[in-house]
Amino acid sequence: MGVLNLTPDSFSDGGRIAGVEPAVHAAARMLRQGADVLDLGAQSTRPGAEEVGPERELERLLPALAAIRAAHPGARLSVDTFHAAVAEAALDAGADWINDVRGGNVTGAAVGGPAAGSLRDPAMLPLIARCGCPYVLMHSRGDSRSMDALAVYGDVVAEVHAELEAATATALAAGVRRERIVWDPGLGFAKTSEQNLALLRRLPELAAAGYPLLVGPSRKRFIGAVLDEPRPRARLWGTAAVCALAVAGGAAVLRVHDVGPIAQVTRMAAAVAGVTPVSAPQP
To answer: Which residue in 77, 166, 225, 227 has the most C-beta neighbors within 10 A?
Structure first.
């Protein structure tokens, strides 16, 4: 999954894709390099990011989405949003997947989150059930401004697993089909560096639940912490190491900025580990 940020303030490449034409060029490059899915985002979810609201998000998203769909009618396009109105407009404009960073945000009041079983936007699950599209359900707590304070766990893997199960139960009860759901453990979202590493070491435990796993380590600050590398764009090789191990641990989808190198890394890692990649849902 190639990351295509349409925001001025994303942590790694904010403002690098400014306008429709650069977005179309970036999409073409990623597809040539081996991206199976492109993930378009018009709202930064980095720690501390300001939320712009669905109207501004749509202004950034829809022109690029329509142009990329016209240029690449067979490409799989995902939209990274937690607003149902944005998701619905994106699906109408040709998106295939919805990637919801608040989909697994079902923590209880004990950690400062919303009530168990709730979603950021209650209209999201009925929309996904109605449309039948693949739905990436990511574990998170709080929002961009509060999540760092909510990285409090006894056993991070067990609690992330339990909270993803709770979110999945909510989705299934709303009519979302099981085979449409993709789990994302939410690296960097309400997790410390050591908690991210623990999730990666024990990724097979999450894979055992039977949902395709999406892992998104690309250029993230826990890699910078391990490597003492403050520049996000200089974290390619740390990202590559994580992706290789994630493939061996059962990941089905890797969400990355550097598609070309990571496509090679993951194919080689799968060959060495002797694993057949788990299939992600088709549109």
So the answer is: 77
Please give the Cα distance from 151 to 193 (Å, whole number): 10
Q: Which residue numbers are catalytic? A: 220, 255
Is 283 among the domain residues?
A: no
Pair 165, 209: CB distance under 8 Å: yes
Tally of domains in the chain: 1
Residue 281 lies in a domain: no
Q: Within a domain: residue 241?
A: yes
Tokens at 106, concatenated: 């079902």
- The CATH number of residue 13's host domain is 3.20.20.20
Residues in the chain: 283
Q: Where are the beta strands (DSSP E) in the chain?
A: 2-5, 37-41, 76-80, 97-104, 135-139, 181-184, 213-215, 251-254
pTM: 0.91
Mind listing the pLDDT tens digit for each residue in 27-41?
Answer: 999 999 999 999 999
Q: Tens digits of per-residue pLDDT, 249-275?
A: 999 999 999 999 999 999 999 999 998
